[in-house]
Amino acid sequence: MYNTHRGMVPAPNSRLTELLEQLRQEFENQSRSTGEFEHQLTGQLQEMEMIRTKVYQLEQAQIKMKQDYEAEIRLLRHELESRGLPITSHPPPHAGPSQAPPPALGHGPSNLFGGVMASQGGSGPGLAPPPPQEQQPPQHSLQQAAPTTQQGPPQPPQSSYGYQPSPAVNGYGPPPPPTASPGPGKSRGRVPPGPATPQQTHPLYPDPRASPQIARPTPPGPALVRADRPGNMLANWNPDDLPPSQKREGPDWYAVFNPEVQRVLDVELVHHLTHDSVVCCVRFSRDGKYVATGCNRSAQIFDVATGLSVAILQDESVDKDGDLYIRSVCFSPDGKYLATGAEDKQIRVWDIATRSIKHVFTGHEQDIYSLDYAGSGRYIASGSGDKTVRLWDVLEGKLVYTLSIEDGVTTVAMSPDGHYVAAGSLDKSVRVWDTTSGYLVERLESPDGHKDSVYSVAFAPNGRDLVSGSLDKTIKMWELTAPRGLMPGTGIKGGKCVRTFEGHKDFVLSVCLTPDGHWVMSGSKDRGVQFWDPTTGNAQMMLQGHKNSVISVAPSPTNNLFATGSGDMRARIWRYSTYTGR
């Protein structure tokens, strides 16, 4: 009975099973729907990412196109200038100036050299007068491994200047007027203040030669000197008025030779080195194979044989806003390193092979304007607007001396044997120190000295003579007193000015001697480069190859090449040779 009863127990509830099955199917349907939705969402996200990437790529392409367009516009404007054609159109407002702004070279807390390269309507920039001399006697302090700070008088008003090219008529035109500036480091449009020099009136200087097919009028300015009395004012000559034996002409440059002296030189352009900003300095390596230039934010190294760029040295850790001009460059004697001095008050020593920074020397309190390596390669001398010359030990990476003077230091040079360092200053003096002791042993100044700030000094190859260039438009050659080593308290011996070279029409910004000592070379705000005979003081040649101030000239140590750097955003390599007649 029991088994029979259990066999009659009814089956599980079929309704419940049916409901559970429906729930399971609904869950599976929802799961499939969710999966499809997630797949669709993933696809949409991927599509959005592709769109974002494409937009970014288009934006970058547009930026590059704009940069390429602006670069092409600059090149075309340069080409028009070189051909002497007037430029009547202007770039779009967003494109900015057609040329990069000039370096900040002024006097006082921030600058030393501003205003020396452009002028307004034929007159010089409004340059501030030098600060009054303090009443106490000059002090020549020496501090061991510690920077000095001197409180000077209130700084005078400062002027500004610019480099935008002005329209030229038949290849000639006055320099442009100054442009406004938002202040140091604010933007690439910065136009820095001027130096502490009296106001001067300057003639309009002719640009280098226009293209041959365009007639050139007589350059504006003073009347031409008669053919029988040219003197050293070679810049007054129009090449069209000279016989072929007294000139040399290229597509956008020309040279004239002094008719009063026998012509013994010839010159030719070897390479044109393109830059995107003002070229502040040029320097050859000791073996003559490379030339370095300093411009905005970078130093560049070029192969002298080919003219091709082989290295661009730029500190990527520096803030990208504003300008940072490299004021001075100098190869180590072995050619492995390049020292650079900049507006950020730092000296960087670059390993050229690895494009990396080996040393950074800090301590200067203002812009660094000049550097020079000792012949041993162990020491670097630096000059700054902070009124100091400093000597650095590259091997040990430390400061050796701080040599303080009364005004801003514009230029330094080491003697060939490394025993002496010379410096030019805004106070019109040239000083020479003994590098082994730090003692001041020469002070070259009035009555035979310069009448305005000294912007360049260079030792002669013999180590006994020194040349200096000044805002008084002259170059002076000094015969240094020998022996020069003196102990404190014995007085400072004064070298003798043996020759004054006069002929430039404006500030002399750079001077040097050829390796054989046979020629003095100078670069000027009058846009010219002149060769001078150091034994007679006669100008042999005047070269016009730039459209703005020649800021730097440098000879090759190994051959008859020399380099020039200019406010026209160009550097050039030239060759001089013995004239054989044509």
From TrEMBL:
Region listing for Disordered, in residue ranges: 84-250
Keyword Iron: no
SMART domains: WD40
Swiss-Prot/TrEMBL keywords: Repeat, Repressor, Transcription, Transcription regulation, WD repeat
Presence of keyword Repeat: yes
Domain Transcriptional repressor Tup1 N-terminal: from-to ranges: 15-83
Listed Pro residues bias regions: 89-104
Compositional bias per record (Low complexity), positions renumbered to this chain: 136-172
SUPFAM superfamilies registered for this protein in UniProt: WD40 repeat-like
WD repeats by residue range: 326-360, 361-402, 402-443, 447-488, 501-542, 543-582
Name the UniProt record assigns to this protein: Transcriptional repressor Tup1 N-terminal domain-containing protein
Organism listed in the record: Elaphomyces granulatus
